[in-house]
Amino acid sequence: MSKEIVQFCVTPYALSDVLLALHNNGVKEIYLTKCDNDLWVRIPKERLERAVYPIKENIINDCACCNKEVEEK
């Protein structure tokens, strides 16, 4: 079974900001490659999902601002 990979191209001047943002959000498994002068960042989808939506906090409408929007509708 193969892993799902999220990949995106990054301009060289933004690479340090992208890597810092990923690191600050807990993404530690990052693969960086260069192809035809393009920089590609590849991250296993599972790792990215855990960083963005931690398992213990993965609840729909878990913040006050989201709940307020739901109540207004």
Count of distinct structural domains: 1
Structural class: alpha+beta
Total number of beta strands: 3
Can you tell me the overall shape?
Answer: flat
Gist?
With 73 residues, the protein is of the alpha+beta class. It has three helices and three strands.
Topology:
Blueprint: E1 5-10, H1 15-24, E2 31-35, E3 38-44, H2 45-52, H3 64-72
Antiparallel strand pairs: 1-3, 2-3
Q: Explain this structure to me?
A:
This protein has one domain. The protein contains three helices and three strands. The longest helix has 10 residues. The chain starts with a strand and ends with a helix.
Characteristic terms for this protein:
single chain, 73 residues, 3 strands, 37% helix, 25% strand, disordered C terminus
